[in-house]
Design a protein that fits this description.
The protein is an alpha+beta fold and 276 residues long. It has 9 helices and 12 strands. The strands form 3 sheets. The chain has a 5-stranded mixed sheet, with no helix packed on it. Strands 6-5-8-9 form a 4-stranded antiparallel sheet, with no helix packed on it. A 3-stranded antiparallel sheet has the order 11-10-12, covered by helices on one side.
Length: 276
């Protein structure tokens, strides 16, 4: 855990080397946030970022005052504001990572440290959702998947590859649990980018996300594969077969494979000219 002293004045945080605090994160804008440090108060404001700022789990819209212990997130990075005189006491430090649950109402993740969902305000239901480990990688995937979904909805295909590279670097290097909704967002963005760019490798990677987990894509994701050219679909036959063969008989409570999607995948793998 790194500590940075904040002198009185303004501190710009971003990806640019000209910022007072540079963060090498593709989800952080060149000039992302501005900290305004006064004698007894600290404020944060958005400096024109693409992905916004969250303070204690809430996305801020304007200049926001932060109290001692406030946690603010830029891209995949989470920082904590502490007063120096407090940090020198013997109180134990908070861990860099903790636990999170998914809100039963809006489905978004939040820390178990708070009593209610910071996104929609629904009070935490202790019996509804088990906590999932929130390593920095898991937080990264949550944010990247959400940003991919937003970029795709806004038609910003030029941003998708940068975001997909970020997601792939995490998922290919460590074992990270990804819930079904985020998995579909990642796959949807990857397949749409393959269709837009002609780079079928991203669609192949999207299929591998499911085969590694023994899951079948939803029908909407499967139908995205039909937007690819026949030549592209033919090269995906091995990856499609891997998804089909990864499916196991469901145990009690497991998700049932969508038969319509399975039939669509079989049609791709068995099409004339499909590569085996």
């Amino acid at each position: 855990m790194h500590e940075i002293d904040l002198p009185v004045g303004d501190l710009v945080i971003g990806r640019s080397a000209t910022c007072g605090l540079t963060i090498d994160d593709p989800l952080v804008s060149r000039c992302h946030a501005r900290l305004i440090v006064e004698q007894d108060r600290v404020f944060i404001e958005d400096a024109g970022s693409r992905n916004g700022i969250r303070v204690n789990g809430r996305t801020i819209g304007g200049r926001t005052e932060m109290a001692d212990g406030a946690r603010f997130r830029l891209g995949t990075q989470e920082l904590t504001l502490r007063r120096m005189e407090d940090s020198t006491l013997a109180a134990p430090r908070r861990p860099a990572t903790g636990f999170m649950i998914h809100c039963p109402s809006c489905g978004l993740p939040y820390s178990t440290d708070v009593r209610e969902c910071p996104h929609c305000g629904v009070e935490k239901d202790h019996g509804h959702d088990e906590p999932t480990t929130t390593t920095e990688q898991a937080w990264s995937i949550e944010l990247v998947a959400e940003t991919i979904h937003r970029a795709r909805a806004l038609g910003r295909s030029e941003n998708l590859e940068r975001l997909l590279i970020q997601a792939r670097s995490v998922l290919d290097s460590v074992s990270v649990a990804v819930d079904r909704r985020r998995l579909d967002q990642l796959a949807d963005g990857a397949i749409r980018y393959s269709s837009h760019s002609g780079n079928v490798d991203w669609a192949r990677w999207a299929l591998s996300l499911y085969s590694k987990r023994g899951l079948v894509p939803g029908l909407e994701i499967g139908e995205q594969l039909t937007s690819l050219t026949p030549e592209a679909r033919s090269t995906l036959a091995p990856a499609v077969n891997a998804v089909i063969t990864s499916v196991r008989p469901p145990a009690m409570g497991d998700e049932l494979a969508d038969e319509a999607t399975l039939e669509l995948l079989r049609s791709i793998s068995e099409a004339p000219g499909a590569r085996r």
